[in-house]
Amino acid sequence: MSIRFDGQVAIVTGAGNGLGRSHAIALAARGAKVVVNDLGGARDGAGSSSAAAKSVVEEIKAAGGEAIAHGANVANYSDVEDMVQQALNAWGRVDILINNAGILRDKSFTKMSIDDFKLVMDVHLMGSVNCTKAVWDLMKEQQYGRIVMTTSSSGLYGNFGQTNYGAAKMAVVGLMNTLGLEGAKYNVRINALAPTAATRMTEDIMPEEILAMLVPEAVTAGALILCHEGAPSRHILCAGGGGYASSKIFETEGVYLEPAQQTPEAVAAHWDEICNTDKQSPLDNGAKQSEKFLLKAQAFLAQDKA
Ligand code: NAI
């Protein structure tokens, strides 16, 4: 099966460098018309420039593709609205949104300022919210949309010095979980990508021989499956260096403690059973968890009355 995007319009945020650039070039090479968004600042978000986005657009055009550049700051909703309007003016629709723009402001929590925490949340979380909000109604109306959130192993599993980044990256998973439910009947599918790639974000944290194996294009291969017509929804794909895996949130079967046992002492006494992963399972939505507990409570009450 050949993965094509002919006739589709994609917005890729933060596409002036690294992973976003790779996603944009691959989408264009496979037939999509692409908005190459980039604010063009430094790795920590300082400054701005249109050069990076324009150079990716030139690269796409030189290869025979179609693209336009847009310098929206994804953290600014009116910039984002303008970007979506430019896409509509040029091509009349938006089928794909890859929320990829990101910055780093790493510090241990002790040393981190509230401003650095907020800025990282603004770009990663609110940037993804803003761009998604700006295309949401039109994707629903056209009964077609594919949205990718860029999460991170730092959010899924934690990483020293990245409380701001980790919180933002897990927040986009929460955004995906609920948007996936709300978009399902309109054929709008949302997925998350947890990449590992050699970019300016990682260039100083890994040795050169490792970086050489972590080409962005290997991550893009997975990203394209998350925004293709046949995409799944509400999946987290981890991709890097040619490895591809699915990250899942499971819940253990747990225990039911009858009313007389609902004490901290009894919870402590059952801790191993609560954490036993033998019968763990994923839950489709939040209500399923309450349902699981309530069914056990009801069964106990029925047995008690009998
Ligand atoms: P990068 O620094 O090469 O690219 C990020 C791009 O986003 C830059 O071109 C930057 O100008 C742009 N950008 C930053 N703030 C923006 C804003 N407010 N509005 C518009 N554009 C903005 O970094 P990389 O590695 O390509 O990162 C892409 C995404 O992947 C990020 O969300 C990052 O957090 C995520 N990621 C990357 C990993 C890696 O191994 N490289 C690991 C896990 C997640």
Automatic annotation (TrEMBL):
Source species: Zhongshania aquimaris
Record-given protein name: SDR family NAD(P)-dependent oxidoreductase
Family named by the database record: Belongs to the short-chain dehydrogenases/reductases (SDR) family.
Keyword Oxidoreductase attributed: yes
InterPro entries in the cross-refs: KR_dom (IPR057326), Peroxisomal_Beta-Oxidation (IPR051687), Sc_DH/Rdtase_CS (IPR020904), SDR_fam (IPR002347)
Source domain of life: Bacteria
Protein keywords: Oxidoreductase
Domain Ketoreductase positions: 8-196
